[in-house]
Structures are given as C-alpha cells and as structure tokens.
Design brief:
- The protein is built from six helices and nine strands; from the N terminus they run H-E-H-E-H-E-H-E-H-H-E-E-E-E-E.
- By secondary structure, it is of the alpha/beta class.
- It has one domain: P-loop containing nucleotide triphosphate hydrolases (Rossmann fold), CATH 3.40.50.300.
- A nine-stranded mixed beta sheet has the order 3-2-4-5-1-6-7-8-9, with helices on both faces.
- Helix 3 links the parallel strand 2 and strand 3.
- It is globular and about 45 Å long.
- The two termini are 26 Å apart.
- The C terminus is likely disordered.
C-alpha cells in the first residue's frame, strides 16, 4: 500500500484484484493514501491509472505522482469531459488499463464522480457502479476508491451512495479532538477472507506521506459515539519509525 505498517493492518496487504474503499472527511488523507498506493505499485514494476474528479491528478499529490504520470507509468483518464455516463467512464478506464497493461486503478472520489455525470445518469448511480466494478474486476486490476464523508461521529457510514458493499475492503479515516487539537485515526473495517487488524491507529501526514503511529488508547472506546475525553492520544512513532 505504500504506507509502512498498513499492509500488516490489512492482514498481509491488499490481495491483487481486490477493490478497496477509503472513506473519510475532507483533508483526512484519502488522496495521499491513493497516491502512495500508485507509487508503491510503480516501485514494484506495476503501472497504474488514475481518474481524479475533485482535483487534477498532478495537484496536491506530491512530485512522485507527477513524475510517474510524466514517465507514462501512471495513466490519466480525462474527467474534464462532463455529462458522461458511468458506463462511458468505465470504458475510458478499461481502455487506459489495456493500453498500459495497468494493474492498479484509483478513482478519486465517488462524490466527484457522481457530480461529473450527466443528471440523467445519477438516478441509477448505485446500479451503474455495480456494473463498473464488475467490469474492472474482469480485467484483474486492484482498485482503490475514495469516498468523502461528513465526520459526524454518531453516524457510521462509508459511502453516501450505499456502495460500500461493492468493495472487498474498507479503510476508514476520522478526526478526533483531544485537548483542543485535531488528530487523525485510521482503521481497517473489512478485508474479505482476511484476518485483518481491528485496531484504530493514529497517523500523521508529513512531507514523506502518511506515517502510522501507535494504536489508540482504551479511551477510544467512545470514538464512534463521541470525542475522547482524555489526552492519551499524542502521536508516538512505532518502533520501526523511532530513531536509534
């Protein structure tokens, strides 16, 4: 996945051919995780494709993704052509997958995707997404989809469109407030046929990308119903990240 420690949380990494939904509020790090996913694939000799509906693929994704796009190791599906159907966008993705023999695909994000569609195609968005996911699965690619959600704490949802069931795995990112400071946490909700971690882990974003910290303290038992009450959640690098 390109984030040290995240493969272990997923129970050994994301199996090839799986689909992953990364859900979280604005600014939580969804696009950064998607970029790390593509960059890690490139390091392993894989090519990828990105369809970015909320910002251009070269914006806010770091120099690594810009270089991968420039070198042709990551292809871009042009999402500026509005009023397409889901099936037409799926066809564009599959054409680019075949051209590059790509093994990794990023769709960023579902909310932007839905807004890019012609109004007449939005009514059956869920059914159209099901067809698109089946079409992508038939190519054998591994897919990462982001979904922006309002962080309401009392409402545990992963997609505003009810499409979470279409994916094989789900990672959720959330904000918490501790001592009047925002902190980020991440957890793996599901990975089909895998004994994944059920821990919530603190994480930070810096110039190198996402850095996972230690698991959250026991006070996080109230996380889904409200904010933590104690300040035991300061970021502590994992043993592999601590300097000697």
């Amino acid at each position: 996945m390109g984030v040290p420690g995240l493969d272990a949380m997923l129970g050994g990494g994301l199996p090839r051919g799986y689909s992953l939904l990364v859900a979280g509020p604005s600014g939580s790090g969804k696009s950064i995780l998607a970029s790390a996913f593509l960059a890690e694939g490139a390091r392993n000799g894989d090519t990828g494709v990105i369809a970015a509906f909320e910002q251009r693929p070269t914006e806010s994704r770091g120099t690594a993704i810009v270089e991968l796009i420039a070198s042709g190791r990551v292809g871009v599906v042009d999402t500026r052509a509005l009023n397409l159907s889901v099936d037409e966008i799926a066809a564009l993705l599959i054409t680019e997958i075949r051209r590059l023999k790509a093994t990794r695909v990023v769709i960023d994000s579902l909310s932007g995707f839905e807004l890019a569609l012609a109004p007449t195609f939005r009514d059956d968005f869920r059914e159209s997404m099901s067809r698109m996911m089946a079409a992508l699965a038939s190519t054998g690619v591994t897919v990462l989809i982001t979904s922006e959600l309002e962080d309401r704490y009392v409402d545990l949802r992963f997609s505003p469109f009810g499409t979470a069931f279409l994916t094989d795995a789900i990672i959720v990112q959330r904000y918490i407030e501790v001592d009047s400071k925002f902190q980020r946490v991440m957890g793996v909700v599901k990975v089909r046929a895998s004994a994944h971690s059920n821990e919530l882990r603190l994480f930070k974003i810096d110039e190198t990308g996402i850095r996972l910290g230690e698991r959250c303290s026991p006070t996080m038992k109230v996380f889904w119903a409200g904010v933590p009450r104690e300040s035991q959640l300061d970021f502590i690098p994992t043993a592999t990240q601590q300097r000697p």
